[in-house]
Amino acid sequence: MSRTSTTTAVGALTLRPLDPLHDAELLHGWLTHPKSAFWMMQDARLVDVERAYMELAADEHQQAHLGLHDGVPAFLMERYDPAHRELVGLYEPEPGDVGMHFLVAPTDRPVHGFTRAVITAVMAELFADPATRRVVVEPDVTNTAVHALNAAVGFVPEREIQKPEKKALLSFCTREQFEEAVSA
């Protein structure tokens, strides 16, 4: 099932479940692009992307969605349960915590405000589930662009953590913090 949120600045943003086999070639191009370096898949082969997203699709604790901008693939959202994936042992999860990753497709023709509209739509989608109390993210500490976007939608950094693949900035956003940030 997909939901659509429309923003007057950029158009319709829709999320649909990712089809690992059908969407793998598209994702491969995005994930291996130099602008996607923080996803650490620069050297991935198509089969690696297919395998990674097949594994994700088979995992009850994770879901991936392809985001469409006016019907055209434009971003990726991953949702995960931090009590079972990504952050196990790195913080004490609370009931209603949901982990999130997002990636905007690399483009030579950026649209002003697009990435902010995407993260806002992603957060609205996550909070559309009444069970979601707080969204958790763990971007690379050096990814200052995403830290600014996270702050714009209400995330508050808690602390740096060491994950196996990176030093990350553990940050949280409650429903109330999100609503306050986007209504300002």
From TrEMBL:
InterPro entries: Acyl_CoA_acyltransferase (IPR016181), Acyltransferase_MbtK/IucB-like (IPR019432). Residues 16-63 form the Acyltransferase MbtK/IucB-like conserved domain. Pathway: Siderophore biosynthesis; mycobactin biosynthesis. It comes from Streptomyces tendae. Keywords: Acyltransferase, Transferase. GO terms for molecular function: acyltransferase activity. It comes from the Bacteria. This is Lysine N-acyltransferase MbtK. The keyword Zinc does not apply.
